[in-house]
Write a structure and sequence with these properties.
alpha/beta, Rossmann fold, seven-stranded mixed β-sheet, four-stranded antiparallel β-sheet, 15 helices, 16% strand, disordered N terminus
Amino acid sequence: MAFDSLAKAATPLLEVSNLSVAFGKHTAVDAVNFYLAAGEVVVILGANGAGKSTLLKSLGGMVQPHPGAQVSVQGNGITGVPAHLVVEAGVALVPEGRGIFGELSVRENLLLGGFAKRAREELEQNLGQVFSLFPRLQERQAQIARTMSGGEQQMVAIGRALMSKPKVLMLDEPSLGLSPILSKEVFRAIARVAQSGVGVLLVEQNARLSLAIADRGYVMENGRMSAGQPAAAMLQDSGLQRSYLGGTKQSQETVPGISQPKASTPLATAAPRGQAADDAVAAARRVVADIPLARWVAEATQRAQVPSGHAMAERGPHPAPRVATTDSQTLDTVCQSIEAISQRARVGTSLDTGRAEPHASVAAAPRVEVWRRAEVEVYKRNSTGQMVKE
């Protein structure tokens, strides 16, 4: 049983049925059906080219749907209505790429959003609500929009749409190009907009962040839309996790295309291969995991001062702690491996084959250019007509 039939309101705020859009022979949106309730956040997920942006443009009056489509806002049909009349009906679209006027100030961009007849009488009130939602815009009313950061420009775009006092707010990729911190700030603002009773239709690639604030979600593939599901259920759906959420913690290792971080390998593994070397590496791993770094440093410092093979002498008023005999033997193995690596690096040989690598040889000393300050000599003509230096 589809979730839509269980949760559908008696009179949805926005209702879409049998909506199709084609460009020539290519069908971008194929018989889409969904609804949006007041105060609800609905997210549409899908890969690039699935038809999500075309769907929003069709709802916003920018693209004409095929005959037979039905789009209504609170029961009033807006199918095929021009874009400016869609705004008057209470539907506002924040397009991908923001589309703000870069040469105008923040305040001028916002006031342009309040040009709709339905919002003119409450212009200052709507402006105050936008500033309450985005205090940063109030601080920067006079700033030229193009000089703002990407996140601030996105706030301007959302604020401009809210100035039309919409019933339905549609956003196309609001987090595109934003840092994680700014993305979270924008999504918190979107959640606050929905709390005010505005229905929010969200197209977003950041599936995890969008589902975190959404009530329901749909998935579009090749122009077709799946039945709606609760956002919480979509977060737990293993198929959606593999497709849009990066896979589950349990399945990440088996999901194709996800590279796993490699375990760190001790330097001792670069020693010559053989059973003895493998045993030494295994012993080194066990010992290194149990010995504090400070003890390794103290041991290495003393070994640098005492010739190899001599007993370690404890010096000074604060002698360094000794490492057990087994630990010392393991440290010998590690140090020998490090020394072998260093020698091979100095002569430019491969660790695997031992042959010389021309590109690994020591680089020539860098060229140093010394620039001297230019001197200017000034000459003038004396009383006898000769040029003399001042």
